[in-house]
Amino acid sequence: MLADIGEDEISEFAQAGFYIALRVGFAFPVEEINNLPDAWVSHYTKQRYMIFDPVIRWVYSHTGTTRWSELALDDPKGVLKQAQVFGLRYGIAVSHFDGNQQGQRSYGIFTRSDREFTDLETKFLYAFVQRRHQETAPPTNLTNAELSALRMVKDGMRLKQIAHEIDISEGAVKQRLKNAKLKLEANTSTQAAAIASQFGLI
Predict the structure, then answer these.
(1) How far apart are CA 196 and CA 17, in angstroms?
(2) Do 114 and 88 touch, CB atoms closer than 8 A?
(3) What does the pLDDT look like over 158-176, one tens digit per residue?
(4) How far apart are CA 161 and CA 153, in angstroms?
């Protein structure tokens, strides 16, 4: 199955490096995998290329796939030409958005030094990003009461304060937070609140 591809296979396809951002909302991804060359990441960051990068502009305004060589967007800083100096000569961008209410999209940037990506490789890589987007979807089984408790944890309130605020026992608050931690696969209430916030749930 196309979607069964793993990160090891991605490294074989994208032998010059890759970057994957999963469920990017307002600012940060829920998860990211950065396997681009350190020297390129350092140069790219120091030059603040992200706002000028035609690949980044494409992934935020399109869905599907495109080869770098097919991009019709301006590259005023010559980002793609400079990437070649670091061995990133050929690349594809993939972008996936499923219409979710949080407005979160996932994308991947994959590079090679020797040749263009084949159509089949492009399909494999898009399938991987699409699958990981689905796997990192926020849980839909959190109750309003659990989300309310997490929101108060995020705001820095202590257990006793939360119980007083919503007029329930501390034991009831603990149970709501325990349920939320299980559903979000978090170890602490603070971590659960952070995950829920990343997902745009609170």
Answers:
(1) 30
(2) no
(3) 999 999 999 999 999 999 9
(4) 10
